[in-house]
# Entry
Amino acid sequence: MTTRQTSTKLVASGMADRPADPATVTTDMAHVVSTSTISDLSWPSLSPPDLIRAPSTSSALRGVGAVEGRDKPGHDDAETPPAKRGVTPARRLPVQKDWPTAAIVAVQIGILVVIIAGWEIGAATNFIDKFFWSHPSAIYHTLMIFFGTGDAFTDIAFTFRSTILGFLIGTFAGSALGLSFWWSKNYAAIVQPYIICFESLPKLALAPLIVLVFGIGVASKIAIATALTLVVSTLTTFAGVKSVDPDGEKLFYSLGATRAQVFRKLVIPSCLPWIISVLRVNIGLALTGAIVGEFIASQHGLGRAIIYAGQTYDIALVWVAVSVLSALAVAMYVAVSWIERMLHKGIKG
Amino acid sequence: MASTKLLIDDVSMKFATPPGVFHALDRISLAVPRGSFVSLIGPSGCGKSTIFNIVAGLQEPSTGRVLIDGVDATGTIGRVGYMLQKDLLLPWRTLTDNIILGMEIQGVKLAEARARALPLLRRYGLAGFENAYPRALSGGMRQRAALLRTLLFDTDVILLDEPFGALDAQTRLRMQEWLLQLWSDFGKTVVFVTHDVEEAIFLSDELHVMGTRPGRIIATIPVALPRPRLRACTATPEFMALKERCLDLLHRAAPPDIEDAA
# Structure
């Protein structure tokens, strides 16, 4: 997103600096378009959550098509003889052509194939150190063992369970806490600095303590996941509470409503979109919490598998566990996004 | 008209502000006859909305009382219907469920409340939108819904605080006629706040022109135009004379620095 903003700024400044001579502006424009094309090309390398939103992926790749659109005016420019300077040549709006979805998917798969093949060949020719990096065929072999005779399903279930429970507890308790601030301004004012303090505290730093207190079982992982999600939900819901329309409250009270009625019929429904908006963030945080808990001390879980494999130099297993973890993260993220959409639909009708 | 329905008795309102005591309202007295339509007009900041908040029980006056049917109702909520300029329809409720909000809060059963609301919805120009959500409606329709919600709250007195202020001129004219229709059907006592002199004259039995600093009533003008009123009456000499007089009063009431303030 930042790259896009920068390119927009470039356009603005290019236009503003030299407005007098149209020919100069033209060269500037061509330059700017090429800059934005380059920065657009780098879009797909953004963070994974951005890639999951399918529509943005295709629009990001559209930058490739812009090259064709840009070339035409560029050529016109080069051919314009000096005598004609000052006359703006007829020019069309550069249009990006959308690639068919199949072509985009093909390129995506192609990139993956090239990476894996390159890695395998590099390892076979000793260009890549197999000890540190492992190689695809060994990873595949380990994957088969992990799912065939290994602990794959136990580990996935363990991590999944602590993540989901931490997510649910943190989100519900946090939302309830945030909503409770509506009831008393004094109470909200008293509690708020503590909440903010807890928010700024690096909660993962408390993980060793939590593991000591809650033991090496599932409880400590749930506790860490809860700690990470709770504050986000609390603060977001509180922001929702603060944004409840005072005129709405006025309307309710003018109709003779009790505080409980205002809370139930106005405050909770107004805050629901805020509560829902943090679900996707929270599922990621809960997974992070669960994994860190497993890193510190655990008998099961994908986090524990990664740590164990790393300590025994089983790099193939590290890759396997990380891949499975990513797949789990994506699956949960997609599921929560779907739930979020359903809830939004339910609210807005 | 008949007996006094709403009596605002010697109400004043003061706020302590850093530069000193601010007189929002100075000893307002106002008797609204049962079933009449009364308008308050005045420049911004003359305390019209403060009067409404006090009558609705949302603010306590510094002095004075509010009597409804001769009973002291100062500082009690839920006695009058109150409609603000914003429609304040809840976006997560259908039109029907928005309109029954008042009844619902008063404890009327949902099914019964809906049964009472539906015929009115259909009769007053919202047929076909019973189950629509507010965002699907035009500004005029939203105001109609908000007004029906106020009417269905089933109080005798209704306060309308610039209900048509945000509508375009055409819709506004149609809404005024619609409001008069509703008023004669329901026989409510209406207190109406507006900036628009023509709107006030067209709708009301009586006008109260207000002045600022402190907010006070500077003139009470009865409107003797015959009812039912048609749009054509706005072109009669009587109407013009009333309008002239109101504008003149408002002009004199406006503080000299009004241009700076605006």
